[in-house]
């Protein structure tokens, strides 16, 4: 092998004048985390609505929600992000399109929207599975004591279902973090994009990628740990969810 | 909105999109699935092994791959494969590896981690008594695996593996980042050459949707049919 390692490269000044290379990657990591977190919140809100709709008694609501999930699950995320970024401003009325294109940080907002919608279909599927795993009797008992459908969901079904699906949601959250890297194609300067920039400035390919790998692993550990803590915090004593 | 939608640019580029782009995508999907299942099965067997070292190595590998973004892994191998190639053939310069070979290696190695989790679940779904019965009539470990456990595990996990293949089909679009001409790459090249981003990206989305949607429907039907047999 003919490769010159230089681990001190991280403390040299970056060519774009933003500080040291380790600082460059740190900036990228911040963007990755902010984007992933915002998109995740959007995904949870939309996923909650769509997931509930899929289990409602109303047939049109079920159909609509099923169509939504199929739409966002069957198109690669990279294509979706292109649709949001390149196609949406063109097919909107011209003044809206111009406004969209002139937004500062367009790549950032586009990624949050695209990723939020993409992940919401997955969250909805998890929630639907969670709701389906609750014995039918609970819903019936809700109606029997005079709760409306909305109340049954609010006070009986959702508190249990959301707890059941916490473990799979952890991995969906991790997927959200990983998927932010796709946004480098529309110019979002997240961790992978910064790593690529560092590699192009310094030619120290493997140092840069090793550091990015470590940073992604750390974020993974952090998210997993946070979600485990949350799981323990919200667990109902004596009721082991899903078992 | 659609009054200057240019259908002709799609019609004009159909042969390029499908004969070149889609061919690449499907070939990569098929080969990476086969490679991923082979390597994944091996990893699953290692992970369930009673030899501590093997299970630790396989577990570490699977967890590492599953916590990294595919794009980062694509870049890793894009730069690493020439060095590995040089090491294999004993050259002291990094050797040139074809773009397709590089992508194939990346996807095989990456997806193997996901297939291995599926196979692990499949192997664990077979009652322990079956393996015990195999050993009792004098079969060796490879014989038990090849004749008793794996055929059933494959059969039970077939729908899940096919679903993973659909995900892999969508994932191959990420080779865009190393400028390969898969289906999306081809669409994007035409889009940029002719300044027709709207038409080409909408068309690409429709094609991906149609293929994935039909494929997942077929998997669902297969699942319903095999579920009765068990």
From TrEMBL, chain A:
NCBIfam families: HEQRo_perm_3TM (TIGR01726). It is a multi-pass membrane protein. Its main location: membrane. Belongs to the binding-protein-dependent transport system permease family. The keyword Transmembrane applies. SUPFAM superfamilies: MetI-like. Gene3D superfamilies: MetI-like (1.10.3720.10). It comes from Spirulina subsalsa FACHB-351. It comes from the Bacteria. This is Amino acid ABC transporter permease. It is found in: Cell membrane. Residues 29-227 form the ABC transmembrane type-1 domain. Keywords: Cell membrane, Membrane, Transmembrane, Transmembrane helix, Transport. The chain crosses the membrane at residues 20-53, 65-86, 106-124, 201-223.
TrEMBL record, chain B:
It is a multi-pass membrane protein. It is found in: Cell membrane. The chain crosses the membrane at residues 24-46, 67-89, 95-115, 160-180, 200-219. Gene3D superfamilies: MetI-like. InterPro entries: AA_ABC_transptr_permease_3TM, ArtM/GltK/GlnP/TcyL/YhdX-like, MetI-like, MetI-like_sf. CDD domains: TM_PBP2. The keyword Ribosomal protein does not apply. Keywords: Cell membrane, Membrane, Transmembrane, Transmembrane helix, Transport. This is ABC transporter permease subunit. It comes from Spirulina subsalsa FACHB-351.
